Amino acid sequence: MKTAVGIGAAALVAFASALAFAPRTPPPLAPTTIGVERSHFNTVTQVGDRLLAAGALGGILYSDDKGVTWTSAKLSQDRQALLVSIAFAPDKKTGFAVGHEGWMLRTKDAGSTWEEVAFSKENGEPLMSIARLPSGDWISVGAFGRAIASKDNGQTWVPLTLPAEVEDKHMNRIASTEDGKNWLIVGERGLVIKSTDSGETWQIEPEFYNGSFYNAMPTREGGWLIYGMRGNAFVQTAPGEQWTKSTIHAPISFFGHAQEKDGTIVLVGQGSMLGMSKDGGKTFTLQRAKGRATLTDIVLTGPDSGWISSDAGLQPFPPSQAKAAAPADQGAKQ
Questions:
Q1: For residue 267, which phi and psi values (nearest 5 degrees)?
Q2: pTM of the predicted model, to two decimals?
Q3: Going by C-beta distance under 8 Å and a sequence separation of 6 or more, which residues neighbour residue 309?
Q4: How does DSSP assign 296-325, residue by residue?
Q5: How many angstroms separate the CA atoms of 276 and 303, rounded?
Q6: Burial of 123 (0-12, 13-18, 19+ CB in 10 A)
Q7: DSSP code of 101?
Q8: What is the per-residue pLDDT across 224-245, written as a single tens digit (0 to 9) for each?
Q9: Are the CB atoms for 194 and 205 separated by under 8 Å?
Q10: Of 32, 84, 234, 304, which sees the most CB atoms within 10 A?
Q11: Kind and range of the H or E element at 284?
């Protein structure tokens, strides 16, 4: 009897061993996706039907399904430097990305692959914004008064001539009207540089504020909205008219903008705050998006859809549970 039990036990062990080492087909792996919920992004933009986002560690992602899935673009050099701005030519294929350490990348396939144009590990002033003029020239501006231009689609770059009053001021953003005729460059210490001839020549706008401006946008009324630190924003109803301070009931710094089809202006800024204006930027109401992140940019992909970039990832717009913010801190510093 004991012999039979022993033989049975041995057979069971042998069967289990054979089963353990037998070849088997593994279950299919889940699709690989790139998490965009926690990464630091400084900019999000759209070219054609493609979305692109870039930011910390030099990463550039793109999405061809309105942000459902994201793919890492291929870069010729992995510098892990902060990228700040992306712009494309009208062909929607050629574009540039710029950032810290004077890093500049160029794409010819709408952002799938990027080649390095410039990088300076030592004494490389950050490039903060890049744009293409109607002439076909590219211009880029950044820290410490740095301004450069290219007439050969980015092959070579030379200093861009700007008024002497720029000095060593940081320049944060280049903006233009849709027709490309009127341009602004805005920066620190109230710096506003304008061009009314498609970027051929530039003049200093008389100072009306001594703080930093982070961005600017043309209004549908034919003027400009400029905004920046501590809730300071100004509207000009038409070129040459006086600048008027907007009403924002909190000292929130704003960094990016979009405009909905009904004309509503949306600003995004610190503390996950949104500024909403229905009167061309004269007054803003406040809403809070998800979390307490610094919102850096926004792009609209449809009438009621879009994406917001931040230092805590990408999040959809409009926020699913946006709440009106109380108009506290009305005595904010100017």
A1: -105, 145
A2: 0.85
A3: 41, 42, 43, 44, 53, 55, 256, 295, 296, 297, 298
A4: EEEEEEETTEEEEEETTEEEEES-TT-EEP
A5: 15
A6: exposed
A7: G
A8: 999 999 999 999 998 889 999 9
A9: yes
A10: 84
A11: strand 283-288
Place of tokens 């950044």: 142
**Structure token digits, residue 300:** 């609209």
The b/e string for 251-282 (b: 16+ C-beta within 10 A; e otherwise) is bbbbbbbbbbeeeebbbbbbbbbbbbbeebbb
Give residue 314's identity as a one-letter amino acid code: L
Alpha carbon distances (Å) from 148 to 95, 109, 190, 235 = 16, 24, 21, 28
Residue 97 is encoded by which pair of tokens? 């990305």
Whether the Cβ atoms of residue 275 and residue 288 lie closer than 8 Å to each other: no
Instruction: Report in angstroms the alpha-carbon separations of 76 from 105, 106, 112, 118, 298.
Output: 9, 10, 11, 12, 27
167 phi-psi bin (left φ>0, alpha ψ -120 to 50, beta other) = left
Q: Using one digit for the tens of pLDDT, what is the confidence trace for 102-161? A: 999 999 999 999 999 999 887 778 999 999 999 999 999 999 999 999 999 999 999 999
254 within 8 A of 233, measured Cβ to Cβ: yes
Joined together, the tokens standing for residue 164 give 């002497």
Residue type, 264: T
231, 252 contact by CB (below 8 A) = yes
**Which of 211, 134, 206, 145 lies closest to 176, judged by CA?**
134
Which residues make Cβ contacts (< 8 Å) with residue 170, sequence separation at least 6?
128, 142, 143, 144, 145, 187, 188, 212
SS3 of residue 56 by DSSP: helix
Q: Are 276 and 284 in contact (CB under 8 A)?
A: yes
Residue in 274, 283, 240, 242 with CA at minimum distance from that of residue 256? 274
Instruction: Tell me the H-state helices in the chain.
Output: 2-21
Cβ neighbours, 10 Å, residue 7: 10
